[in-house]
TrEMBL record:
Enzyme superclass (EC): oxidoreductase
Family: Belongs to the ferredoxin--NADP reductase type 1 family.
Span of domain FAD/NAD(P)-binding: 33-189
Gene: FDXR
Organism for this UniProt entry: Amphiprion ocellaris
Name of one Pfam family that matches: Pyr_redox_2
Residues that hold NADP(+) according to the record: 178-181, 222-223, 234, 399
Cellular location(s): Mitochondrion
Swiss-Prot/TrEMBL catalytic activity: 2 reduced [adrenodoxin] + NADP(+) + H(+) = 2 oxidized [adrenodoxin] + NADPH
E.C. code: 1.18.1.6
Protein name: NADPH:adrenodoxin oxidoreductase, mitochondrial
GO MF terms, alphabetically ordered: oxidoreductase activity
Positions that bind FAD: 42, 63, 71, 107, 392, 399-401
UniProt xrefs under Gene3D superfamilies: FAD/NAD(P)-binding domain (3.50.50.60), NAD(P)-binding Rossmann-like Domain (3.40.50.720)
Pathway: Steroid metabolism; cholesterol metabolism
Length: 486
């Protein structure tokens, strides 16, 4: 009776394993089948937890690009290789006998969520936050204004940012936003080229940065030093960045030392480092280092953009007009309020780093456009049985990989609870990738397996070795597919 509702009649009997195209054991299709959309940290950590929690579940991961790992590959700064070590754990998960990777599948376009739900017992959406928040001021569209998402994508080899070619011929760059991504961008703009040469930054970005005229980077925030959103590691890297010196506005720090008493320890340490950098007279050695520095970075607090100013002769930017704010309230909840004063800062490059944003990829899936997340309770998508979400799509685009890991484990726990309690109906067998592969083939979509990705990985590492880099990333999807198919 069990076999009647079970497509395993066509496949090896339960428990015995056949071999699939990617060389994996092919389990009975009576097993519960879960599909994950997106192969960033959220996708992989959700998969890892599910596979570990139950011995029978099969997990398929669908990814839009031919290459896995999401922002670990395309977001994390090239000079943070240690952060990318999580790839080793993800690779172990991908190679697990009950996990399969299908790259080059754009869910929402190549296959719908409804089709995935037909084929799997549960679908987990983990496709991250691929949009960006706009600044919403006149002049935002001028040449010379970039979103941090595109700028980071450019130096990290995201295929659709390949042709960004930012104009780095100006002396001053302004970054809007004071989170870790803003500091990543500032650091990459100001790092000595010799240290970038040893990273996996793309060759075009390396060449452009080698020619860059940018000497001064101002990192602008609406509120004050006590509200800054970066963490101490990133700030320390700025403070110690070879060849640079800080340029702060001492009056921005009035009253800050006194307000430090009752704040949590991480913020206290971060603020103390800022105070030291901004106000204390440096020691002899540090002074000498600063005297030799040819590049400058600094925070500009209590400022919001009003307009990007155009150069009258060209269609590019000449500067940015900032509103001067004051704070109402204190601590994390303090509000920036306009004073009516304005300030123009001449600059030739503006990078807006005010946040990533999730997008809806399928109209059938509930989506909260205001919060730009999929509405959920503990990862269970509201009013959509069998549908779950994890990662930045679940929480909004904040938090490091460890935060994403925890929220993905929580989602996996919810899913496991629903399987165990019977809330998730496992009584009918589901075809899983068998039916989705057939659909994709009909639509002319050829997925990239994990072993295909390993070919790309090998080529990238070989190319990198030739120039003393850990890897030289392939920059075009077609090139990736060509290597995958050899
Ligand atoms: P993502 O990593 O974005 O993964 C989403 C995946 O879904 C992507 O692979 C994407 O291609 C895929 N996808 C999108 N749409 C579709 C679709 N329609 N169909 C199929 N697949 C799709 N954290 C740290 O701990 N340390 C750092 O140094 C650090 N640096 C960062 C630097 C930057 C610039 C950014 C933006 C973030 C950084 N983070 C860092 C945070 C970390 O990257 C995130 O916490 C984490 O990547 C979020 O994981 P995610 O899986 O939700 O999203």
């Amino acid at each position: 009776i069990l076999l009647i509702g079970c497509t395993s009649l066509l496949r090896p009997p339960s428990g015995s394993a056949g071999i699939t195209r990617c060389g994996k054991a092919c389990y009975s299709s009576c097993n519960p089948k879960v599909c994950i959309v997106g192969s960033g940290p959220a996708g992989f950590y959700t998969a890892q937890h599910i596979i570990k929690a139950r011995q029978d579940v099969e997990v398929d991961i669908y990814e839009r690009l031919p290459v896995p790992f999401g922002l670990v590959r395309f977001g994390v700064a090239p000079d943070h290789p240690e952060v990318k070590n999580v790839i080793n754990t993800f690779t172990q998960t991908a190679k697990h006998s009950r996990c399969s990777f299908y790259g080059n599948v754009n869910v929402g376009k190549d296959v719908s969520i409804d089709e995935l739900q037909q084929a799997y017992h549960a679908v987990v959406l983990s496709y991250g936050a691929e949009g960006n928040r706009s600044i919403g001021v006149p002049g935002e569209g001028l040449a010379g204004v970039y979103s941090a998402k595109d700028f980071v994508g450019w130096y990290n080899g995201l295929p659709n940012c390949r042709e960004l070619s930012p104009d780095l011929s100006c002396e001053t760059a302004v970054i809007l936003g004071q989170g870790n991504v803003a500091l990543d961008v500032a650091r990459i703009l100001l790092s000595p080229i010799d240290s970038l040469k040893k990273t996996d930054i793309t060759q075009p970005a390396l060449e452009a940065l080698a020619q860059s005229q940018v000497r001064r980077v101002l990192i602008v925030g609406r509120r004050g030093p006590m509200q800054i959103a970066c963490t101490i590691k990133e700030l320390r890297e700025m403070v110690n960045l070879p060849g640079t010196r800080p340029e702060m506005v001492a009056t921005d720090f009035e009253g800050v030392a006194e307000a430090l008493k009752d704040v949590p320890r991480p913020r206290k340490r971060l603020t103390e480092l800022m105070l030291k950098t901004a106000l204390e007279k440096p020691g002899e050695k540090e002074q000498e280092r600063r005297n030799k520095a040819s590049r400058i970075w600094g925070f500009r607090f209590f400022r919001s953009p009003i307009e990007v100013l155009a150069d009258p002769n060209h269609n590019k930017i000449a500067g940015i007009r900032l509103a001067v704010n004051k704070l109402e309230g204190s601590g994390e909840g303090a509000q920036a309020v306009l004073t009516g004063e304005e300030e123009d800062v001449p600059c030739g490059l503006v990078v807006s780093s005010i946040g990533y944003k999730s997008l809806s990829i399928d109209p059938s899936v509930p989506f909260d456009s205001r919060k730009a997340i999929v509405p959920n309770i503990m990862g269970r998508v509201q009013q959509a049985a069998g549908l779950y979400c994890s990662g930045w799509l679940k929480t909004g685009p904040t938090g490091v990989i460890a935060t994403t890991m925890n929220n993905s484990f929580d989602t996996a726990r919810s899913l496991m609870e629903d399987m165990d309690s019977g809330t998730l109906d496992l009584s009918a067998a589901k075809p899983g990738s068998q039916s989705i592969s057939a659909l994709l083939e009909k639509r002319g979509v050829k997925p990239v397996t994990f072993s295909d990705w390993e070919k790309i990985d090998n080529v990238e590492m070989m190319r990198g070795e030739a120039s003393g880099k850990p890897r030289e990333k392939l920059l075009k999807v077609e090139e990736m597919l060509q290597v995958a198919r050899t």
